[in-house]
Amino acid sequence: MSRATAPGPWTRHAPGACGSFAEVALYVLKRLLAAIPTLLLVAASVFFLMRLIPGDPALLVLGDAATPEAIADLRASMGLDRTLPVQFALWLSQLLGGDLGFSITSGEAVGPLILDRFGVTAAIVLAAVAIAVLLAVPAGMLAAWKQGSWGDIAAVSLATLLLSIPSFWLGLILLLVFGLKLGWVPVVGYVTFAENPWAALHYILLPIATLALVEIGVLIRMARASTIEVLRLDYIAHARAKGVPESRVLLRHAFPNAFAPTLTLVGLVLGNLLGGIAVIETVFTLPGLGRLLVDAIFARDYPVIQGVMLFIALVYVSVNLAVDLLYPVFDPRVAAE
Amino acid sequence: MRLRLNLVIGGTLMGAVLALAVLALAWTPYDPTRTNLRRRLRPPSADYWLGTDEFGRDVASRLMAGAVTSLGVAAATVLVALAIGIAIGLASGFLRGWVDRVLGAVNDTLLAFPGILLALGLLAVIGPSRSGIVLALGLAYAPTVARVVRGSVLSIREREFVEASRALGNSEAYTLLRHVLPHTAAPVTVLATSLFGWVILSESALSFLGLGVPPPAATWGNMLASARPFMQEAPLLSIAPGALIAICLLGANLLGDALRDLLDPRDGA
Amino acid sequence: MSVLEVAALRIAAGMREVVRDLSFTVAEGETLALVGESGSGKSATARAVIGLLPPGLRQSGGRIAFAGQGLSALSPARLRALRGPGMGMVFQEPMTSLNPAQRIGAQMEEGLALHRTLDARSRRQACIAMLERVGITDPERRLQAFPHEFSGGMRQRIMLASVMLLRPRLLIADEPTTALDTLTQAEVLSLMKELAREQGSAILLITHDLGLVARHADRALVMQAGQAVEEGAAAPLLAAPRQPYTQALVAALPRRGPSRALPQAAPLIEARDLSVAYPGRGGWFRRAAPMQAVQGVSLSIHPGEVVALVGGSGSGKTTLGRAMLRLLPASGGSLLFRGQDVTASTGPALLDFRLACQIVFQDPYSSLDPRMRVRDIVAEPLRLPAGMPIPERQRRAEAMLAEVGLGGLGDRYPHALSGGQRQRVAIARALVRNPAFVVADEAVSALDATVRKQVIALLRDQQRKRGFACLFVTHDLGVVEEIADRVVVMQSGRIVEEGPRDQVLDAPAHDYTRALLDASLRLPATA
Amino acid sequence: QDLLRIRMNADIRSTDPGVNRDANTDGIAWHIVEGLVALRDDATVAQMLAERVDVSPDGLTYTFPLRAGVRFHNGQALTSADVAFAMQRYMRRETNWRCRADLDSAATRLTAVETPDDRTVVMRLEKPSALFLTILARPDCGQAGIWHRDSLNADGSWRAPIGTGPFRLGEWRRGQFVELTRFADYAALPGEPTGLAGNKTPLVERVRFTIIPDEAASRAALIAGNIDILPDARSRDLPDLRARPGFSVHSAPSMDLQTVLMQTRDPLLQDVRMRRAIALALDVPELVRAVSEGGSRPSRSPIPPGSAFNTPAMLEVPPRDLAQARRLAQEAGYRGQKLRIITTRRYEAFYEIAVVVQDMLKEAGIESELEVLEWATQLDRYSRGDYQMMAFGFSARLDPSLSFEMFTGPKATQPRKAWDNPAVQAMLDQTMAEGDPARRRSLFEAMQARLMEEVPIIALYSSTTHGVTPRHVQGYRSWAVDAPRAWGVRIVR
Ligand SMILES: Nc1ncnc2c1ncn2[C@@H]1O[C@H](COP(=O)(O)OP(=O)(O)OP(=O)(O)O)[C@@H](O)[C@H]1O
Ligand SMILES: Nc1ncnc2c1ncn2[C@@H]1O[C@H](COP(=O)(O)OP(=O)(O)OP(=O)(O)O)[C@@H](O)[C@H]1O
Ligand SMILES: [Mg+2]
Ligand SMILES: [Mg+2]
C-alpha cells in the first residue's frame, strides 16, 4: 500500500552535514520535540477511534459461552470498566513513566512485545530497502544516462511492471514456486538471527525479495527521473566541458544530486512499508509488527494497538528525521536554509 | 516516441478493463453471485471459460462484475481523496501561517498512520460497505493529495499573475479559485492516475486481510483473497484477479507517465 | 593563425535547421562576439564548437577545426583531452553551473587533476592563487565551501577561475553575465577580459547586448535565424551597420528622450518614512531577526509623473514598489493616496485604492495566467467595480488590445504569444481600468533589445495619452533615459539620491549612482 | 529427531489453566496439568487424579480419594492440600476462572472443599447437580487442573504451571511456538488413551506447537515436512491430502454446533410462520454437504450426534418445501423485504453457510443480503442480540443441558439468548437438577420438538475434525475437540 509519491515532507530544513555536533544535536532535539504534538494526536485519535469500534475484548476472550457476570469480571480486571477519559488519562500518565501497559489478551508488557516483533519487521524492511536501493539506483541512473536506448526502455518497462504487481500476490507466487514447488526455502516459521543466522536468512529471503522487487520498481523510476533532471543542468555540461570522463560525470556529479530526492522517497518508502507490512507478514506468516497490529486490532487489544501505533508514528518521524539529517550530505544547499 | 507508446499501451489496457466493466453492467455470462454447490472449483471449460470458484460461481462473470466494483470503488475513492486533499492542500498552501501549520500537523498525523488501521477503524465505525471503503481509503490518501496540491500551490502563489490578481483588487477567494486552483490540475491529474492504481491495490490488500468490500459482491481483491486457499488446486482462481489488478495498475501507471510527459511545462509550452 | 575555424556549420533540431551555413574564425588572442536575438542559434553554435550539443540537436553539416585539427575526426578520448586545456566554456547561469553537492575546491581541482600532472599540494596552491586572482577573499577557507554559500557574481567568478585555471586557448562564454546585475556584470566581464589577456586566450563571446560588444569585442558576427548577417570589426560595425537587421539592433539602443515640465500639483501618492521588513524564519527556540528590506523611505509621486527607481540587485526596489501598492504590508511609516492615509485601510477603502493603482511585472510569462485567454485576462480588471455587463467588458478589452497593437489576438492563450506581445497584454491589463498610478517593476528587463524598444515606446505613448503617474522600477539606466522624469536611486533599502533625470544622470552626486552609471553599458556613439 | 511438531493457528493467551484462555490455551494446558476427573472420547467423565469418585446418595457430597504415586513436575508428591489450594484459588473472584460462575450458580453451587486427610478431597454442593463433574472435567475450565503452589509467584500471581501431566512446559516463544518436554516421572494410568483420560504416556522427548495462522500455509508446511501434525485440516483440502501418498487423515466428529440464529424480536421474524418459512426454504442436507465437503452429517438438534442423549428423532431432517415456505412467508406478511444475514470471514464455515443460505432463500422468493463483519463486531452484535439473522457457531458443550442452555434464556437480562420462552426455561432448569438419564432424555426430546416448532435457531450440523499426519507419525487420533493430544504419539523413521 504504497502512499509514497512526489514532493518531500511538509517542511525540510536540516542543519548541514557540516553543522557542529551541538547544532545537530539541538536540531534533532527540536525535531523530536516538534513531533510530540503529532504523536499525541496519534495517541489520542487511536485511543478514541478504537473505542468507537464495536467489539469487546472481554467478549472475545470469553467467546460464545460468555455470561454477563464473567464479562463484567473480565472487563474489570482489564481496567475497561472506568470511563474513557479516565482510561486515557491513566494510559497517558503511564506512558510518561515510559510504560506502555500490558496486553489485555496475553498480559505481556507491550513495550518489550513491540521491540521483539519489530526485530523481524525491521530486518525485512531494511534489507529489502537496502537491496532495492543498491540495485535500483544504479539501474535508474544508467537508464537515465542512456535515455531512449533499448536498455533504458527495458529498465523503465521492467520498473513499471514491477510497480504494478500487487506485493501480496507476488509473495504468494514466490511462495508457491520457491517454497512448495522447488522447496528451496521453508514455507513457514521464523528463527531469529541471534539463534541461527543461516536459518533465519532462509526464512526471510522470500519476504525480502518480494518487498525489494516492488520497491525496485518505485526506485528505478525515481532515480531515473531525478537523474534525467540533473543531467539537463549546466554543471553537468560544465563538467563535460572540462573534459571529465562520463563515468566520473555520472558518479561524482550526477549521482549525489540525483540521489537526494531519491533519498526522500526512500524515507517515505521505509515509513510506508512499516505501515503496510502486515500484508506481507500475513502471507509469509512472520511474527512481525504489522501482524501484531492486525491481530491486536482483531482482538481489540487496546494497549497493544495504542503502543504499536505510537511506535510506528515514532519510527516514521525518526526515519524522516534521519533522511533530513542525511540529506545535506547529498545536497548541501539544504543545510543553508 | 516513448510518450506515445505509454499512451497507447496504457490507454489500451485501461480501455480494455473499462470496456469489460461497461459490458458487465449490461451482461455477464452468468449471475456473478449465483452459487452452484455442485459445480465447485471446476477447471475452465466451454461453459465456464475461467472455471468456477469455491461456491460454484462463474469466475469470468465475477471478474467482469469485479471490474465494475473495483473500478467504481477506485474512482469514487480517488474523488474523495481529491476533494479532501485539494481542499486541505489549497487552504494550507494559500493561507500559510498557522492554518498551514495546523493542517500540516494533522496531515503528518494521518501520514504516520498505517492505512490499514485507519481503514479498519473507519470501516468498523461506518460498517463495512463500499462507501465505508471509499471513505476510509479516501481519507488515507487525502494527505498525499494535500501534499502535492500544497506543493504546487506554493509554487503557483509565487507566480506573478497571482499577485497581479490581488493587485486588481480581487478577493483572496476569487484569486484562489480562478487563478490558483486550475493550475493544480496538471499535477493532480497525474497523481489521480497513480492514485487510481494504488487504490485498486489497497482495496485488494484490505480485502486480503479481510477488511475490503464485503462479499459476496465481487472485487478482484476479495476474489484473490478467497482464492488464496486454493492456490495449488485452482491456481487460475488467484492468477486471474491478480493479473487483472496488475493490468489495471500497469495501465494506470503508463497513463500517468504519459500524462506527466504531456503536462510537463518544459515540453508543453 | 586561427584557434578556431568554423566552416559551413549546420545544426538541426529534428527536421528543422537552427543554424545554417555558418562560417567564422577566431584568431589567437582575439575576442569574437556572436550577437543576435534570442533563438538565433548562438548557444547552439557554441555547444557545437565544444562538442556538447544537447539531446535534440545535432550537427548536420560543416566542419569545426580547433588549431587546425578537425573535431569530427577525433576520438571521444582525444576530444575530452582537448576540453579544458584547449577550449574552456563559461555558462550563462551562475546558479546552476556549479555542482551544488561538491565543494568548490574539488570542482576547481578536477580539471587540473585530469589534464595536468601536478600533485595535490600544487593543485591546491594553483586553485588558491586563482581564487585570489578573481577576487575571492580568504581563498584557502573558501575552497571548502559549497557553491550555495556564494552570491551569483562570486559563483560566476569561481566558474571563470576554474575554467581559466587550465589556461585554455579558446574561452567560450555563452551570455556569461545576463543573470547578474549591472555592477556585477561589469566586474565579471572585465575580469574575464583581463584573464584572457594575461593567458593569451582567445574568446568567443556570445551575447545579445550590443553595449557589451562595443566595450569588449574585437570583432563581431551578427546572427539572425541561424545565419550570419554581418561580420566585421566591432566598433565600425556598430557605428555604421550596413545590414537592416544590424541597423535595427543598433537603433533599438535606448536614447534620451526630451525632458518635460510637469504642472505643479499635490502628490498623488506619497510614502512617508516607509519601512518594510520580511519576517525572519521562525524556529522553536528563537526567531531570526526580520530582514529590513526598505528602511524609512519617503517618496512622493505627482499625477502624470514618471519616476524611475534604480539601484543594484537586492537594494529594495521591488519591495518598495509593492509596498506602495499595499501588496506588501508596511512595518513602519505611512502611505498616503490623494491625501488619504491608506496604510492600513481595509474593505471598500482598500478596494478604492486598488482600483486606482496597477502593476506591470517583469516576467511577461509568469504574470499572465496561462490558462486564460488574452481577452479574458484584459477583461478581468473590469469585474470590479461590479456592474459592468460582460459583453461591455469584452468590448472594452478588445479595444484595449487593439490599442496596444494586439487587435484580433484576443482568443489566444499567453503561451501562443511572443515575449513582447505578452508584455503588451500585461500592460493592457494594467491600463484597461484607467488607473491613476502604475508601478512597472522591471517591465522591460526580460525583453530583447528590439522588442524592449517597442514596449517602452508603447508605455511612453500610453502614459502621455492617459496621464497616469508611474513608478518605473529598473536596473537599466538606458531605460531611465528614455522614459523617466525623475530618478530615485536606492541602495540597501534607502534612497541615496533623488532628482530630475538629467541632473542625476549627468551630474550624479552619490558614489553609488556614479558606479551604476559607469557599469551601465552604453554605445560610445550615444554616450 | 524426537521432536513432534504440531500446528497451532494462534498463540496461546497464558499458561494459567482455565483462567486467561482460549481453545489453544486449553490445548496446551491439558498436556501439563490434570484435574481430579477428565473427559473420555465420548464426553463422559472418568477419573484422573482421583482414584474414583464417591457421590453421596443425596447428591450433595463428592469424595475424591487421590491416586497414589502421582508427582508434580518438580518432584513433589500430590496431596489433598494441593487440590484444596488450587480449588480455593479457582473460586476466588479475582482469579477470573472461566468456570467460577458455573460453580456458584443456582443450578450448581460448590459450598466447601475439605481435606479430611492427605489423600482425600471432599467437595460439598448446595443442591444436587447433574453438571458438577462435567464442569470439573471441562477443558475450557482448565479441567480444574491441579498444580503445585510453586506455580505462583510470592505475591500470588501466576508464574508457570507445575502440573502432574505427561509434559512439562519448555519454552514459550510468543508468536512463534510453545515447546513442551516429556515428564519422565509421569504416573500413567493403565489401558488405552481416551479423551483427556486413560493412558497418557508421553512417547516423544519434545513437542513443539508451531504457530501458523494461515490455513494454506499450514497445509503447505505439512506437505513440505515442516510440521508433523496438522490437527485441523480444512475439509476442502482433504481430497488432495488423501490423494497424496504418505499422509493419513484422522477424522472424528466434534461436539460444536453450526447454526443460523434468528432474532425473535425482529418485526418480521417475530412471526413464527416467517421463521418456519425460512427453515423450510433451506435444503439442509445439501447445505451441510456443500459446506463440510461431505465430511459432516446434518443434525437439527443442539445435542451433538455423538452424545448419549442424541436420539434418532433428533437426527430427522424435515424435507425442504419451497411451496410451503412461500405460502408461510406470504401469510406472515413477507413482501420482498431484504433480510440481513450477519456473518464473518474469520470462520469460513459461517461465511459459507451464509452464502448458501442466501442463495437457497432466494429460490423461495426470500431476498436477503449478507453483512460480512469482522469477528469482534459480529460477536458484539451477537451478545447484544442486535441482528436479524446470523450464521453462528457454538463451541462444544459437553452436557446436553448446556447444549440447550447456550441459546435459551430471558432476553431481558441476556440479550444474546435466541430462545426466550419461560415454559422451555422451566424444562431446562429441570434437566439440570435431574440425575436420572432416562428422565432427562425425555425432557430433551420434548424441548427438541418445541425447538422445531418455534425455530428460534436452525441447527445445521456438528462439524468434523480432520487431523492429518505423515506416515512417520504413529498413534495420533483426532477427537471431539479440535486441539490435538500429543501423548501416545510416536515418531517412527
Ligand atoms: N535541445 C533542443 N532541442 C530542439 N531545439 C532546440 C534545442 N535547443 C535549442 N533549440 C532551438 O534551436 C534554436 C537556437 O537556439 P539557441 O539556444 O542556440 O538560441 P540562442 O541564440 O542561444 O538564444 P538565447 O539568446 O535565447 O540564448 C532555437 O530555435 C531553439 O528553439
Ligand atoms: N519574500 C522575502 N523574504 C525575505 N527577504 C526578502 C523577500 N523578498 C526580498 N527579500 C530581500 O529583501 C531585499 C530587497 O529585495 P527586493 O526584491 O526589493 O530587491 P530589488 O531591488 O527588487 O532587487 P532586484 O533588482 O534583484 O529585483 C533583498 O535583500 C532580498 O533578499
Ligand atoms: Mg543561448
Ligand atoms: Mg526586483
TrEMBL record, chain A:
**Is-annotated flag, keyword NAD?**
no
Q: Which Gene Ontology biological process is one annotated for this entry?
A: transmembrane transport
**Entry keywords, A to Z:** Cell membrane, Membrane, Transmembrane, Transmembrane helix, Transport
Q: Where is the ABC transmembrane type-1 domain?
A: 118-327
Gene3D superfamilies the UniProt entry points to: MetI-like (1.10.3720.10)
Q: Which membrane topology term applies here?
A: Multi-pass membrane protein
Subcellular compartments = Cell membrane
Is Metal-binding set as a keyword in this record? no
Record's Pfam families? BPD_transp_1, BPD_transp_1_N
Write down the PANTHER family for this protein, in alphabetical order.
DIPEPTIDE TRANSPORT SYSTEM PERMEASE PROTEIN DPPB-RELATED
Coiled-coil region(s) at which residues? none
Entry's PROSITE patterns?
A: ABC_TM1
Give me the Gene Ontology terms describing cellular component.
Answer: plasma membrane
State the InterPro entries in the record.
BPD_transp_1_N, MetI-like, MetI-like_sf
Family assignment from sequence similarity: Belongs to the binding-protein-dependent transport system permease family.
Q: What is the protein name stated in its UniProt record?
A: ABC transporter permease
| Organism per entry | Falsiroseomonas algicola
Chain segments annotated as transmembrane? 32-53, 120-144, 156-180, 200-220, 258-284, 304-323
From TrEMBL, chain B:
One GO cellular component this record assigns the protein to is: plasma membrane
Locate the coiled-coil region(s) and give their ranges: none
Its localization reads: Cell membrane
Output the Pfam families linked to this UniProt entry.
BPD_transp_1
Residues passing through the membrane, by range: 7-27, 63-90, 102-126, 188-214, 234-256
Q: Which Gene3D superfamilies match?
A: MetI-like
Checking InterPro entries in the record gives: BP-dependent_transpt_permease, MetI-like, MetI-like_sf
| Protein known as | ABC transporter permease
**Topology in the lipid bilayer:** Multi-pass membrane protein
**Transport among the record's keywords?**
yes
Superkingdom, taxonomy of origin: Bacteria
Kindly give the CDD domains that the UniProt entry links to this protein: TM_PBP2
Q: Which residues form the ABC transmembrane type-1 domain?
A: 67-256
Write out the entry's keywords from A to Z: Cell membrane, Membrane, Peptide transport, Protein transport, Transmembrane, Transmembrane helix, Transport
Which family is it part of? Belongs to the binding-protein-dependent transport system permease family.
Q: What processes does the entry annotate via GO biological process terms? A: peptide transport; protein transport; transmembrane transport
TrEMBL record, chain C:
Kindly list the GO molecular function terms attached to this UniProt entry: ATP binding; ATP hydrolysis activity
**Ranges for domain ABC transporter:** 4-250, 269-517
Keyword hit for Ubl conjugation = no
Primary residence: membrane
SUPFAM superfamilies assigned to the protein according to its UniProt record, in alphabetical order: P-loop containing nucleoside triphosphate hydrolases
Name the PROSITE patterns for this protein: ABC_TRANSPORTER_1, ABC_TRANSPORTER_2
Q: How does it sit in the membrane?
A: Peripheral membrane protein
Q: Name one GO cellular component term.
A: plasma membrane
Give GO BP annotations, semicolon-separated: peptide transport; transmembrane transport
InterPro entries reported in the protein's UniProt record: AAA+_ATPase, ABC_transp_ATP-bind, ABC_transporter-like_ATP-bd, ABC_transporter-like_CS, Oligopep_ABC_C, P-loop_NTPase
Q: Name one Pfam family in it.
A: ABC_tran
The alphabetized UniProt keywords are: ATP-binding, Nucleotide-binding, Transport
Transmembrane ranges, per UniProt, are none
Q: Where in the cell is it found?
A: Cell inner membrane
NCBIfam families to which the protein is assigned, alphabetical: PRK10419.1, PRK11308.1
Family assignment?
Belongs to the ABC transporter superfamily.
- Record protein name field: ABC transporter ATP-binding protein
| Species of provenance | Falsiroseomonas algicola
